[in-house]
Design goal:
The complex is a heterodimer of chains A (182) and B (122). Chain A has 182 residues and is α+β, with helices and mostly antiparallel strands. In chain A, 38% of the residues lie in helices and 25% in strands. Chain A starts with a helix and ends with a helix. Chain B has one domain: Glutaredoxin, CATH 3.40.30. In chain B, a hairpin with a 6-residue loop joins strand 3 and strand 4. Classes of the chains: A alpha+beta (182), B alpha+beta (122).
Chain lengths: 182, 122
């Protein structure tokens, strides 16, 4: 994975698979360059046995293959930049994954196209779940909540082309000034 | 600046159009592989390019969705195009630059772009 936004796109799919109704993405970049990404869902959660081995590349819930590389690759990239990846989970309650690393570290991942990741997530899952993005950097705050969009739209789908076009611009306008959009 | 008021207008228009749009059971589908392997190989810009190109051509009946890993990670990004009454066509190692041709030749004109398909790659 070339940047954090691609990891986020990948890992958020785990929340979708876990049957979440709300996926919360909280990204904070501090003045010091320290980055914290929290990906929290209200999905099915993991039991202690799965939680204990979930950072291994040989842990996966799928039955077709024996490898699952999403979490281990993110962990490796975080550790390479002086950070870490931690996961908390409760069966029936949901899972919260936290990534931290130092953006001043020469080996740190760039943020990437966060707006593109959010749009892809929504497009790929237009009916469920809802996505909440809460971003904060020294440049300001960026919030986007599909529940708000859904409320205004009534029964109209988020996959409606005009809605997609609106969300694309709204996401770019909201997120890019705060996180650079690169 | 995009506001929720704009969205309200979009909603009104969408509801208006809904009556006009025929609900054809077999509408076209574009499915992009978006597992870890697909994403790492560049599936996100490909998916967004399809959305952009379909919107540009006003092909509102074509849906874009995602799927997981098909087990051929070395051929990602992979895209399935399904047209009503035709067999599924799988494109491999798709880049955003290839999307224009796939939409024009296959989705619009019904002729798959053979050189991009999995058959040509193997």
């Amino acid at each position: 994975m070339r940047d954090l936004s691609l990891h986020l796109l990948d890992l958020a799919q785990n929340s979708v698979k876990a049957g979440a109704s709300l996926v919360t993405i909280r990204l904070t970049v501090e003045e010091s360059g320290w980055l914290t990404l929290v990906l929290a869902d209200d999905g099915c959660g993991m039991d202690e046995a799965l939680l204990a081995r979930v950072k291994s590349p040989f842990a996966t819930t799928r039955t077709t293959r024996k490898v699952g590389l999403g979490i281990p690759m993110m962990l490796e990239n975080a550790q390479r930049a002086g950070g870490n990846l931690t996961i908390e989970s409760q069966v029936g309650r949901g899972t919260s994954l936290t990534v931290t690393y130092d953006m001043r570290n020469i080996d740190s991942l760039p943020l990437g196209d966060l707006a593109g990741t959010m749009l892809s997530l929504i497009l790929a899952n237009p009916d469920r779940p809802d996505f909440l993005f809460e971003g904060k950097s020294p440049a300001g705050e960026a919030n986007f909540d599909t529940r708000q969009v859904r409320q205004v739209l009534g029964g109209v789908s988020l996959a409606e082309p005009a809605v997609v076009a609106w969300m694309k611009e709204a996401l770019e306008e909201t997120i890019n000034p705060i996180f650079g959009g690169v | 600046m995009k506001t929720l008021a704009d969205l309200e207008a979009i909603r009104a228009k969408a509801l208006e159009n809904m009556g006009m749009r025929r609900e054809d059971a077999g509408s076209a589908r574009v499915v992009v592989g978006m597992a870890t392997c697909g994403i790492a190989a560049g599936a996100r810009p490909v998916m967004l390019a399809f959305v952009e190109e379909l919107k540009r051509r006003g092909l509102e009946h074509v849906s874009v969705s995602q799927t997981g890993c098909a087990g051929m990670c070395r051929l990602e990004p992979m895209v399935d195009v399904m047209l009503p009454g035709q067999e599924k066509v799988t494109y491999v190692k798709v880049t955003p630059e290839m999307v224009g041709r796939i939409v024009a030749e296959h989705i619009v004109n019904g002729r798959p772009v053979e050189e991009y398909t999995i058959g040509a790659a193997q």
